[in-house]
Amino acid sequence: MNRYLYLLILCFLGPVKTAMANDALIIVANTPDASIQLTRQQVRNLFMGGALSYDLNAVALPPENHTRVLFNTKVVGLTESRIQSYWAQMRFTGRKKAPKEINNEQQVLEYLKTHQGSIGYLPAGMPLPDELTVVYQIN
Amino acid sequence: MTYFFRPALTAFIILSSYACFANAQTEDKLQFSGFARLIMGYLDDSNAEYAGYDNSISLGEQSLLGLQADYQFSDTISLTSQLVGHTNERRESGLEWLYVTYKPNKAFQVKLGKQRLPFFNYSDSLDVGFAYPWLTLPKQFYETSFFSTFEGLLANYEFPVSVLLINLEGYWGYYDDDIYSPDGGVETKVTGLFGFNTSVTWKNWNARASYNQGNTELTLLSASQFGEQLRQVGFERSADWLDPDGLIQFYQFSVNYEDLNYFLRSEIAKMEGESGPVPDIDSFYVSVGYNFYPYTVYLSYSKRNLYYNHPENEIPFGVSDQLNALAGGYVAVTNGFLDDKSAGTKIGIRWDWRSNVALKAEATHIDADEKISGDFTLRDLGNFDGSAILYQLGLEWVF
After folding, report:
1. What's the total number of domains in chain A?
2. Among B87, B243, B252, B319, which lies 20 to 30 A Cα-Cα from B107?
3. Where is the Porin domain (chain B) (predicted)?
4. Is residue A17 part of a domain?
């Protein structure tokens, strides 16, 4: 009886665990220094146009993209509308420019591969080429 | 409906002139962007006017169109111009920004040219309604700065220290243009204009402090002429008080918090005017909001206390008819500079319909002294009891 109960629990847990894996994010950089590890605050600053000790150029996904929504929620900690209003203020006061937007995750991966110093966010589990480094991960 | 044509005409001229330029350039080097506001307002009181709104529905007070062109000369040097067409006839349409930026790295940049003054958090983005949650910025606070642009140099440096992100900014320049008054423009020169501000960001918190000052020369002909008359008969102190020229200083401090669900925005400022006709102003606002994407609701309270340092009358009454007339004139003139206290309480909602379009609705209750100067946002049209509500609907667009 316990075996059946265990299987039943696994059946319920299975999809939950899969969903969690799908929601995990990796922050990936094309940098010659593979030892770089960033904190969540550093990643947030970088994608909000802030200065960082490392010379990295952020790229982003479009506003409707699911991975971007996860990134906003888990790393930046702001709603999409607040992020858009922040960038409007930055752009029209000449302070900062929003990260370059790239259509989808596959194109982000291609861009990162070919642009040294670039950094972007991707779903965890996406196969990465050797030249890219995971600098931060969040589940 | 003429207020629709002015920004449209401005936009047409800008786009036409830039189009010729754009043809010769690569797409990457030249970029266009813009912002627009369509704001409707109605004041529930026929005895007052607030922010230009009266007891009739109006679209012509805050609606505007702004266009920006950025041209990248090289990796480090760019040129930016921004033109704004206002529907409000009291606000001058035309060039708001025109500057060259030198940005050798992400941390440091210098801008040279015509720019917006960074007195307060939103001083340099007053016209970009999409950038802030309110439909109308808290007027009791943001009307403190009488001029909003300057020509000169602005430098900015940002750097991380442990878990903090620190931003330092300084500027230096001058202002030479009219400042708005309900009675018309006042010719103003501000020299030795400089300021610096620093902001510190830690997690979801941000604090900012700034100091700004400038030597102002206001063209207030009647005050100057009367002052000269007083000086000739030896009433130096009274004449000095009426001299509108002098130092103006601004102090500002703000604390902001925001996360996925809530935000807090607060700002406090003090303006000190050295000369008699320039008042001292204490002002602040506190706003709290709740996000339930794509909506944001907010509550806001702002207050301003504007006061003049009225001197004692040194001109004696009852000595001669001539002195009586002079003393009477002096009292009448100085009494014209009325202290002015007002508060604004807002409730509003913002709906981010698209990633670049937001719709807003807001009600602002204005609570003022029964006796107001009428020199600022709030005007008594006769028998105003000091209380009114402004209802507004707005569309904010960036492109």
Report:
1. 1
2. B252
3. 14-369
4. no
